[in-house]
Each structure stands twice: as C-alpha cells, then as structure tokens.
Amino acid sequence: MMKYMARTVSIVLHPMVMPLYILFFIFNTNTLFAYIPSGVKVYCYLVTLFALLVMPVVSLPLFKHFRLIQSYELEEKQERVYPILVAIIFAFLGFWLLGRVGYTNIVRQLYLVMIIMLSIFSVITFRWKMSMHMAAIGGVCGFLLVWGLKYYGDVRSSLMLFLILAGILATSRLYLKKHTPMQVYLGFLFGLFFVFGILF
C-alpha cells in the first residue's frame, strides 16, 4: 500500500507535469496574466502538453529499443541524459511555437529558464545522480517566491502547499529507494535557488 502511494505521488508530481501546474497558477491568480485571452491559454496548455510531456514520454520506447536505456525507471544516471536532451529540444520547439502568438512572453520566459535548468542538470547528471523530481518541485517553489515578490501576488497558500508536497515527494522518493537523502535535498535546493536566481 505504501509503495503504491509513493509511486502515485511520484507520478502526480513528475517533473514533466510541473510546467502544467505552473501554467495553471499563472493563468488563475489575481494578476494581469489572468486576463490573457482564453484561446491563448488553451494554446499554451496544448503546446506545453505536447512539447514537455507527450514527446519525452513517446521517446522512451525508442531509447529502449536502441538500448540507450535499460528500463523506464532510468535507474542509471547516464540513462537520464537522453530523455533530458529530448526535453530540451522540444522545449526549444515549444518556445518557438509560443512565439507565434501574442500574450505569451511570461510563458516563453519560463521556457527559457527551463531550457537552461535542464541543460545544467544534464551536465550534472554525467557526474552525479540528483533527484529530478525534487529539482522540479524546488523550481516551482522558487517560481512562487519570485511571483510573490515581483508581481505582488498572494502566493502564501500556494507556496505552503508546494512545500508540503515537496516534503511528501521527498519522502516518497526515499521510501522507493530511488535516491539518497543528499540527492533529494540537493535536488530541491538546486531547483529552488536556480529558478529564483534567474527570474529575480
């Protein structure tokens, strides 16, 4: 039962899903971004779903077929580089697609941060295995901090929620023995301070 719950948490809070959560936050908070036309919002959701979720997932069977990865769990740190590179390539594609419509500057800015973060993460992965789950949710927390400071939005409840979720996610990753405590803690701090430092 506990293992099932831990796996469910890992799926619901998967790094590839985090951009969709951020978009939902941007479009539904009491700032000027809430007034972006609904058609543009849907377009942003669809581009993000395609570029940052569907295509990286679709690429995994291909990697397995050519024996670049042994399993979809990506246990070995070197195996994680290939899906990250695919995510970077399609993030560039998403950035370009978003540039073809108006009112998407804030989303394109997030894409740039994501591309830089993934690039650095891939370099780190060559040398050391760090929790991508924790880096992603740490990045969300860093984004919320910047959002509250720069756009004067009330992010207290959202930030508290994601900090609690980060704790649950960290516990789940440790329970599943996917990472060591150091890999979990440093992953979260990397995402938090990187996103905060870039955006602020």
Strand content of the residues, in percent?
A: under 5%
Helix content: over 70%
Structural class: mainly alpha
Total number of domains: 1
The coarse silhouette is globular
What's the end-to-end separation, in Å? 41 Å
Oligomer: single chain
Please mark out the parts with pLDDT under 50 across 5 or more consecutive residues, or reply none.
none
- Give the biggest beta sheet: none
What is the string of SSEs from the N terminus onward? HHHHHHHH
Report the count of strand segments.
Answer: 0
Arithmetic mean pLDDT: 89
How would you describe what is shown here?
There is one protein chain. With 200 residues, this protein is mainly alpha-helical. It has one domain. It is 74% helix and 0% strand. It is built from eight helices and no strands. Helix 6 runs antiparallel to helix 7, helix 6 packs parallel to helix 8 and helix 7 runs antiparallel to helix 8. The mean pLDDT is 89.
